[in-house]
Specification:
heterodimer; A: eight-stranded parallel β-barrel; 14 helices; 44% helix; B: alpha/beta; eight-stranded parallel barrel; 12 helices; 13 strands
């Protein structure tokens, strides 16, 4: 098994180096931009990217419908649909997702988040606190699994949901799996526990490989995968990459509205991982290639691998050696960085993986994510 | 208001696309896997036949209607999608976000068919345990919240018995050439459904009865300035004999098992529209409510199988009789749908429109109603 690399989908109206200030304030992010997004999906297929993260939020179009139309216009690329509990009842959600799987031949996985902002959750009529949102998400996913197992009517009487004789005639359809890969995103202990109990993978924000080791051990011990959400600035030489990183900051509005907006976003958020990443960013370089300089202006997922193609490839392998198997990456601009990644970084990663296999010590020893319920207990 | 006649509009149901006798099977036995190719073919034929919109129905035994509609929207150019919506299965904010996303993807080719749910058993499978009347009360709140988003007067704040929305906002607006919100159809025959249609909908969908009987029922809805439409099946042939023989072969083909299936359904449904229509069909001595309105297939294919049956001229007459009591929209089904839709388009629709547009006596109660929430650009 090889490392799997995903990318963030291009958003409507997105321009170079978009920050939260320039992004969320644009009405354009609320509109699909099919022409550019389809071209982006096709380039991702060309660049060896497995899946594209389709955001969820009040500022964005609905990710399930957007994935359906992009899926019809593409052949291989998968869509990692971001979703939150508290928006839709689980039966409805499974029906929508299964319908989507049938339309795009199973090219669907899920990135489940508990919601990062109580303010935004209330737009949707959801008034639960952080820990309750996790408890509800646990129940939500347990019900989803019960439908995907497809072994008779679903009956659950929980704290948040009560389902009686739930049935759906539309199954999850995929040539490879009987239910979607379930990434559980979030840095809190609650998110990690949820990944272990209901997910196939824990998707967290980056830290140095040494610091990750202890935090991800329980997930790996439970037989689940670990993924990292991070950014990349890879250039022919280290100097060029570092220069590009600082250019990114230099290009910002001198009024520093970006910094203020990002601080405002952070103040509204009760996300553990977003706040922890800000704390991490007190130190600009966590190791020679792990840079936090863009976090204060571009948000927590902007922790970036910065270096030559060789250095970035090796850094990704360092993560693989502590047990990370999948990545959701992004860059500035998203498209250009993805093309460079596919051309320069990915072939180097694959060569190292191949060499390790030939030496009899493959980086990823076995297939992690069991594709059907027959081979796992949930 | 002016006294100009409302145009007649024709829609077709996709509830049986790709499977002629789907309606004869129990819901549990129906496939929920969407046959994309058959649906696309159907939509393109509907475009060619001058059909206004196609209904994507809702139920646990079907693919999700709004996801299916977004896929079909990509593969078609003109046809609108009438997406069935139930309250109680998602947050109204989510529905608005999905509807607006679909509008942006299809240039506004979406309208909504809001239904209250017809079977408590099915609702419980979604986690909804409310009674018939409470479902309507919740639907009222649900549409109120949705309309507040579409009205677009700043953040949405709403606190009711069922929903509590605080400062709700969405960046995806409803996008269409001629509207700032989707047209809302609302289905049902109970007094709650009628009340809800008068408050929130553009058009009430109901099931047919004899026109004079329907006239009394829908009077209040029409008086409130809303349209009324009927969900009705059709068997139109060159001659009455051919139509009657086609009607008889429907019964022969679906058989007694289908009859038991629908008796079973009637026992668990709390829908006034469905159960009263099934009772009507079972109890009346004749299968003919008028010379062209046949209930014979209802026990086998369910309430929406009340059918206009006859020669092209007779079916035309039937549609015009309904238009005289104020019915201006029609949602059709056929067995199978494609040939029926084609002959409707070739033979019935031109006859209906020629007479409707020429005759000043038809549809005397209809008005073009200026609705405040629709801004013509």
């Amino acid at each position: 098994m090889n490392l799997k690399f995903h990318w963030r989908l291009l958003q409507g109206g997105e321009t170079i180096g978009v920050t939260r200030a320039t992004g969320a304030s644009q009405r354009a992010t609320g509109l699909p931009d099919l022409e550019r997004q389809i071209a982006f999906c096709r380039q991702a297929e060309e660049s060896g990217i497995v899946g594209l993260l389709t955001d969820i939020g009040a500022a964005k179009p609905d990710p399930i419908l957007l994935s359906a139309v992009l899926g019809l216009a593409t052949e291989r690329i998968e869509f990692i649909v971001a979703y939150r509990s508290g928006l839709t009842l689980p039966t409805t959600f499974v029906q929508q997702l299964n319908t989507l799987s049938a339309l795009v031949n199973g090219r669907i996985s899920l990135n489940i988040v508990a919601g990062h902002s109580p303010v935004e959750q209330r737009y949707y009529g959801d008034h639960l606190c952080h820990s309750e949102r996790y408890a509800r998400t646990e129940e939500f996913l347990a019900i989803c699994h019960a439908f995907w197992k497809n072994s008779g009517p679903v009956n659950i009487c929980g704290k948040y949901y009560r389902i009686e004789e739930g049935k759906l005639n539309t199954p999850f359809i995929s040539p490879r799996r009987s239910y979607p890969e379930l990434f559980i995103a979030g840095g809190s202990d609650a998110a990690r526990s949820l990944a272990i109990s209901q997910g196939t993978l824990w998707m967290r924000l980056a830290d140095s490989p040494e610091n990750l080791r202890s935090s991800i051990a329980p997930v790996l011990d439970a037989g689940k995968e670990v993924g990292l959400r991070m950014s990349i600035i890879a250039r022919p030489t280290r100097d060029e990459a570092v220069h590009a990183a600082y250019e990114l900051l230099a290009g910002l509005d001198p009024s520093m509205q970006d910094r203020e907006n990002e601080a405002h976003f952070r103040n509204k958020s009760d996300s553990v991982s977003i706040n922890a990443t800000y704390a991490l960013a007190e130190k600009e370089w966590l190791n020679p290639w792990l840079w936090t300089g863009a976090v204060r202006t571009h948000g927590a997922p902007a922790v970036a691998l910065v270096g030559s193609f060789e250095e970035v490839a090796n850094a990704l392998i360092d993560y693989a050696e502590v047990g990370v198997t999948q990545f959701i990456l992004s860059g500035w601009p998203k498209l250009d960085e993805m093309i460079l990644f596919g051309k320069e970084v990915l072939p180097r990663v694959r060569r190292i993986e191949q060499a390790s296999r030939e030496q009899g010590r493959p980086l990823i020893p076995h297939e992690h994510s069991n594709p059907s319920y027959a081979s796992r207990a949930i | 208001m002016n006294s100009e006649k409302r145009p007649l509009r024709f829609h077709w149901s996709m509830s049986s696309v790709g499977e002629k006798w789907r309606g004869a099977k129990s819901r549990a036995a129906q496939s929920g896997i969407p046959d994309l190719e058959a649906h696309v073919d159907f939509c393109r034929r509907a475009e060619a036949c001058g059909i206004d919109s196609v209904l994507t129905a809702f139920g646990y035994h079907r693919a999700d209607p709004i996801v299916l509609a977004s896929a079909l929207g990509m593969l078609t150019t003109k046809i609108k999608f009438m997406v069935a919506v139930r309250s109680g299965i998602c947050s109204p904010t989510v529905l608005v976000q999905q509807v607006n996303t679909l509008s942006a993807l299809t240039n506004g080719r979406i309208c909504l068919n809001v239904v209250g749910g017809h079977t408590p058993e099915e609702q419980r499978g979604y986690g909804d345990f409310l009674s018939h009347d409470d479902r309507y009360a919740r639907t009222d709140e649900f549409i109120t919240v949705c309309r507040a988003f579409w009205e677009g007067n700043g953040p949405v704040n709403f606190k009711g018995n069922y929903y509590h929305i605080e400062n709700g906002r969405l960046n995806t607006p409803f996008l269409a050439a001629d509207r700032s919100s989707p047209e809302i159809f609302l289905g049902g025959s109970s007094s709650q459904a009628f009340g809800l249609a008068m408050r929130h909908a553009h058009c009430l969908w109901t099931l047919p009865r004899r026109p004079e009987e329907l006239a009394t029922r829908i009077q209040a809805v029409l008086a409130s300035g809303k349209e009324v439409g009927i969900l009705v099946s059709m068997i139109a042939r060159p001659s009455r004999e051919e139509a009657l023989s086609a009607a008889q072969s429907v019964l022969a083909e679906v058989g007694d098992r289908a009859r038991r299936t629908h008796q079973d359904f009637a026992r668990v449904s709390d829908s006034v529209a469905f159960t009263s229509t099934l009772a009507l069909a079972e109890e009346t001595s004749s299968d003919w409510l008028t010379a062209w309105l046949w209930t014979g297939a209802v026990p086998y294919l369910g309430a929406p199988a009340i059918a206009l049956v006859g020669s092209y001229d007779e079916v035309t007459e039937g549609i015009l009789e309904f238009s005289k009591v104020g019915v201006t929209q029609f949602l059709f089904l056929g067995w199978p749908d494609l040939p029926e839709m084609t002959s409707f388009s070739k033979e019935v629709r031109p006859r209906v429109l020629a007479r409707y547009n020429a005759d000043s006596e038809l549809s005397p109660v209809a008005h073009i109603h200026e609705e405040a929430e629709i801004h013509h650009r």
